[in-house]
Write a structure and sequence with these properties.
Number of helices: 17
Distance between the termini: 50 Å
Strand content: 25-35%
Protein name: Glycoside hydrolase
Shape: elongated
Mean pLDDT: 93
Largest sheet: 9 strands, antiparallel
CATH superfamily of the largest domain: Glycoside hydrolase 38, N terminal domain
Radius of gyration: 32 Å
Pfam family, one: Glyco_hydro_38N
InterPro entries: Gal_mutarotase_sf_dom (IPR011013), GH38_C (IPR041147), Glyco_hydro/deAcase_b/a-brl (IPR011330), Glyco_hydro_38_C (IPR011682), Glyco_hydro_38_cen (IPR015341), Glyco_hydro_38_N (IPR000602), Glyco_hydro_38_N_sf (IPR027291)
GO molecular function, one term: carbohydrate binding
Low-confidence stretches: 3-27, 531-539, 617-621, 625-632
Keywords: Hydrolase, Signal
Length: about 1000
């Protein structure tokens, strides 16, 4: 993100000591007084380490020779200040005597121009500091220029860095150049284009420590990823590490404020043990700066894994000190490293002294810290850094500067202080996820594709298909990660949205998800049929279809068969020839309920000529449960009422909102009596809740009449749109409500937000929601100073008290607010914090935040066109159950899939059972020799997992990781810690 948007009080505070009367300096005025400023620094002076104070010339400069007399620690000493035609603003004075062990007064006088000036200050004890400096260029994939230009720059930086590292090998160790590539995206593309000679030179530089690789593919909004995608974020780096025999165990995340707790959960799987965060200095970061320089072990939800986390100074320090004073790389098409000829000018003096002094005053317990050094976003290297460090270390005994890598710094820090580092647990809820709703259609598609990709992987494993297309799956994950990378557009995307470069950058960003769709569609089709779905009807054998269940429990749910697969008729029978309830929908699809489809397996059905079967009773169950029961086959639907035997729903004829939602068995109405109802459309123009608008002119019509599927469709006028259509759908006997909201959005560039409101009637509710690899209790499971204005769910949110509640899924729109709309007035950069919440009161009011354009840079200025947002609601007449919530979420994100029947397959050669343990994802091993399974224990207790072979053939089971390494052998039964995750490999 643009450094030019990051000016704040931080640097101003640190530079007070040298910014005296700028107008006097410009006119060449002589100083009129002096001020002494104590520092934490030690000067090298005549072979000794001397505490340093700074003499500041006030209201002008000193041009004449002068004599300084120093009295300190019972000793006196004299120094000569040389005359200077340019004038001096300050002078650094070494204090005589032994090290300072208590507060001691220093007195100084200077005789110059026939006048004597006097000053004094108190010098406190100070430790000897080491300051690690991490050279990098912040990787925005776009933003400052087109993506291709940006990539070329970062690739050139690698070559420049290798040359500079080689050139400085005769420098003192601490001043030898190192380079951090920041994102594996840079390395991946560099290697793809490099000759073998260049590749060899690159890997030689890596192994020498000249080039340093951190593990993440890019600076990703980690809260937007699902569990598998979050792990995939490190797949490329770990494969490279394995190939080259090196260790990549660090993550450096630049710019992005906050991160998902899931990163700590997957340490054993990814090998990433250290996390350096260099966030933005001021843009929409809330109270995040309060975590600055407070390193801690970030414990996983299970408490069994830990990630050493350090949030350093904002990554823009290098820009603010130097990058802003050299040619503007933003305006250059092909910027090159810039030599000023004065390496020490605009460097760390006096910023570093003041920064470390502030750390000491805050009780910082360590003698080392780290800052990053980048000239700007997507900038060339600073070629003068090694000389600046060398000159600094020759002058100052402390702080000593060390050009470092992320890995070197964390190794040095942990080796020295591992017993002193505190531990914390909780989600560092991200701030910048709000911007993704500026492209709601693409965001929804990205989420859908991630689920479909996992389903394609799963079916490939279930069917034991040969020639597993590793590269195609990797390419899909790469494109989805690039879509969730934090750069969405140009720096002027909001101020100049019609600029050709702005439009071209968005086109490339959008292309990531469109490319992913093209590949995922092919992979899903290949996994299911080997042919495209449009041709698959010709392969039907005896009019049979297969229904696949990609989750780890037997499952009953509705199946929607495309018209192309159901031409034979409307009558559906199971493998025993028993007809099942079915219905031809207005869309042309044939719907039926598939019962108890085996976990991670399939069931086969046949379609016959004739009318759909309409029994008097049908065996049904709640989606995800394993028990079937008799339910009266009966649905009721009228102009504004619908019921499926489980729920009764009453629609307001005036608004189209749900005014009553009753769970029939308990008679409980889940809609707040004094509210406008559930699924209310809210449009907020500008920045104020007072201006909020709702839909109008509701027209309700019956879309699906039953007997299996019933739905009402509400068409409304809605501000900010060309129209709003809301469909409310029930399936006979199924414990689930589906809402399908479709907006035809107008392109509007003035600030706006769109919400759907869900005021549930659940007194004393607590809100929990899913994140990658775990669950967060809103507020209690969040780190202090993390985002509480909105939340980003993976698959579900649960709103419940000790007796009952609602599990609510939002597959397409990840953002929601609790209690009220807390995003009003959150416009632009928001460099000040009053509007940022520090506490989230629990509430059963949930607001789905589906669209906005509140940002001032990077994200889209407007969006238009048809976008659909689906919601699934399931009421439970008991307190919160994590396993059931995850069942509901996975069911809603991974629907049963249907295809033309194939030859009988054996399926997976094993079964998996364990209380509160579910399979997050599974796939064929890349080498084709086994099945990789990602397991989650979502319960509060350790749980035993049993893996049973289906035949007499023995199973080989290993604990594994993202690289699919066989780490250690496992028995057929083992224990998974409470809230823990594990990756295993099973071979038959």
């Amino acid at each position: 993100m643009s450094y030019r948007l990051q000016f704040n009080a931080l640097l101003i505070t640190f530079l007070i000591g040298i910014s005296h009367n700028v107008s006097a300096q410009k006119t060449g005025s002589a100083f009129s007084d002096i001020q002494l400023q104590p520092t934490i620094a030690y000067l090298k002076y005549h072979g000794e380490s001397r505490r340093m104070i700074r003499l500041i010339f006030k209201n002008g400069k000193n041009y004449q020779q002068g004599k300084i007399s120093v009295s300190f620690n019972g000793l006196q000493e004299s120094l000569i200040v040389q005359a200077s035609k340019d004038g001096a603003e300050s002078f650094e004075i070494p204090l005589p005597g032994s090290p300072v062990t208590k507060a001691t007064q220093a007195t100084v006088s200077i005789l110059t121009g026939g006048k004597t000036y006097k000053g004094s200050c108190i010098v406190e004890p100070s430790r000897m500091w080491n300051m690690y400096v991490l050279p990098h260029s912040h990787v925005d994939i776009g933003y400052t220029n087109t993506q291709s230009k940006v990539l070329k720059l970062h690739q050139d930086n690698i070559d420049e860095a290798i040359a500079l590292a080689e050139k400085t090998q005769q420098y003192p160790t601490q001043a030898r150049f190192k380079w951090t590539t920041e994102a594996i995206w840079v390395v991946d593309n560099y290697l793809a284009l490099a000759s073998q000679q260049k590749k060899d030179k690159f890997w030689d530089a890596v192994k020498k420590g000249w080039i340093n690789l951190d593990g993440a593919y890019g600076n990703i909004n980690t809260s937007l990823t699902d569990s598998r995608q979050l792990m995939q974020m490190f797949s490329k780096s770990q494969k490279l590490a394995k190939e080259q025999g090196i260790v990549i165990n660090t993550l450096f995340q630049g710019d992005v404020p906050g991160a998902s707790w899931g990163l700590a959960a997957q340490v054993e799987q990814t090998g990433i043990k250290y996390f350096l965060s260099g966030p933005n200095a001021s843009d929409r970061i809330g109270n995040l700066a309060k975590w600055q320089d407070k390193p801690f072990y970030w414990l996983s939800p299970s408490g069994k894994q830990k990630l050493l986390f350090w949030q350093c100074q904002p990554y823009s320090i290098g820009y603010q000190l130097k990058g802003d004073k050299i040619p503007n790389f933003f305006t250059m098409e092909d910027p090159k490293p810039f030599y000023t000829g004065h390496p020490s000018k605009n460097f760390l003096n006096p910023y570093l002294f003041d920064y470390l002094d502030q750390l000491a005053q805050k009780g910082f317990p360590y003698d080392m810290s780290i800052l990053t050094w980048a000239m700007s976003d997507n900038a060339p290297i600073d070629p003068e850094l090694p000389d600046a460090v060398k000159i600094w270390n020759e002058k100052y005994a402390s702080p000593q500067l060390i050009i470092t890598s992320t890995k070197q710094f964390f190794a040095d820090f942990e080796n020295k202080y591992n017993r002193q580092i505190p531990s914390f647990t909780g989600d560092y809820t991200e701030y910048w996820t709000d911007g993704v709703s500026s492209a709601a259609k693409e965001t929804a598609l990205s989420r859908k594709l991630s689920d479909q990709l996992k389903q394609a992987d799963a079916i490939w494993a279930i069917r034991n298909r040969k020639n597993y297309p590793v590269k195609s799956f990797e390419e899909s994950w790469k494109n989805l990660l690039l879509f969730n990378e934090h750069t969405w557009g140009a720096f002027n995307s909001v101020s100049h949205p019609d600029d050709e470069k702005v439009k071209s950058e968005w086109a490339v960003k959008q292309s990531y998800v469109l490319k992913a769709k093209e590949i995922v569609d092919t992979l899903l089709s290949q996994s299911l049929t080997g042919d495209s779905l449009k041709d698959s009807s010709s392969t039907l054998k005896n009019n049979q279809i297969d229904v696949y269940n990609t989750v780890s429990w037997p499952r009953t749910n509705v199946v929607y068969v495309p018209a192309s697969l159901s031409k034979a008729g409307d009558l559906v029978k199971d493998v025993s020839g028993i007809p099942v309830l079915s219905q031809r929908l207005t869309t042309g699809e044939l719907a039926f309920v598939a019962e108890l489809v085996p976990s991670m397996g399939k069931s086969t059905y046949s379609i016959y000529p004739g009318h759909a079967y309409h029994p008097g009773t049908t065996r049904t169950k709640s989606p995800g449960s394993g028990k079937a029961s008799e339910k009266k086959s009966g649905v009721n639907i009228s102009d504004n009422l619908l019921s499926n035997g489980v729920y009764s729903i009453d629609i307001s004829p005036q608004t189209g909102n749900i005014k009553k939602l009753v769970k029939i068995a308990s008679g409980r109405d889940y809609v707040q009596a004094d509210s406008a109802g559930l699924n209310q459309y809210l449009y907020m123009p500008g920045d104020s809740l007072e201006k909020i608008q709702t839909s109008s002119n509701a027209r309700i019509a019956i879309k699906e009449k039953g007997p299996l599927v019933i739905s009402l469709q509400i068409t409304s006028s809605a501000p900010g749109t060309n129209g709003l259509i809301r469909e409310i759908r029930l399936v006979n006997g199924l414990d689930q409500i589906e809402l399908i909201n479709t907006i035809d959005k107008k392109a509007i560039r003035s600030k706006e937000s769109v919400h759907f409101a869900f005021p549930f009637n659940i007194p004393d509710a607590k809100v929990r929601y899913s994140i990658p690899w775990g669950t967060v209790n809103a507020e209690t499971d969040q780190l202090p100073y993390s985002n509480r204005n909105w939340y980003t769910m993976q698959r579900w949110a649960d709103i419940s008290n000790d007796t009952y509640g609602i599990t609510w899924s939002s597959p397409d729109a990840p953002l929601f607010e609790i209690g009220k709309i807390t995003t009003a007035n959150l416009l632009g950069g928001l460099q000040h914090a009053p509007l940022w919440l520090s506490f989230t009161p629990q509430s059963s009011n949930i607001y789905s935040w589906v669209m906005n354009n509140l940002w001032h840079t990077n994200f889209r200025a407007d969006q238009q066109g048809v976008v659909t947002f689906r919601y699934f609601i399931q009421a439970h007449e008991s307190g919160f159950n994590s396993y059931q919530a995850n069942q509901s979420g996975l069911n809603n994100h991974q629907p049963l899939l249907v295809t033309a029947a194939s030859a009988d397959e054996k399926g997976l050669p094993f079964t998996i059972n364990g209380e509160n343990i579910y399979v997050e994802a599974f796939k064929k091993a890349d080498d084709g020799k086994g099945i990789i399974i990602h397991l989650v224990n979502c319960g509060d207790q350790d749980s035993k997992l049993n893996i049973s072979p289906k035949t007499n053939a023995p199973l080989k089971i290993w604990e594994s990781d993202i690289s699919e390494t066989h780490k250690k052998t496992l028995e057929n039964h083992f224990t998974l810690p409470a809230k823990g995750i594990m990756t295993i490999c099973i071979e038959n």
